[in-house]
Specification:
The chain is mostly helical and 76 residues long. The chain is built from 3 helices and no strands.
Length: 76
């Protein structure tokens, strides 16, 4: 767990300044990870809609802010 977000943020900013993005290295890493996923049979998915019902239900729960009760009494 992060105890002090400002220290972490300053560390990340300093690291970014010291080590700019190396797009070629990042592409090599991505291609290696993609190749590994294909070797393991993770991609391509057999059926891309597998589990979509769970995703839809979860999105509904996460995005539902709930209706305010209409019989709520105000004591002001």
């Amino acid at each position: 767990m992060i105890q002090n977000a400002s220290i972490l943020r300053s560390f990340e900013n300093a690291l970014t300044r010291r080590e700019p993005a190396d797009h070629r290295r990042n592409l090599v890493i991505f291609e290696a990870m993609y190749s590994e996923a294909r070797t393991l049979g993770i991609i391509p998915l057999q059926n891309s809609l597998d589990g979509i019902d769970v995703d839809i239900r979860l999105a509904g729960v996460l995005n539902d802010r709930g209706a305010a009760p209409s019989n709520r009494s105000r004591t002001e």
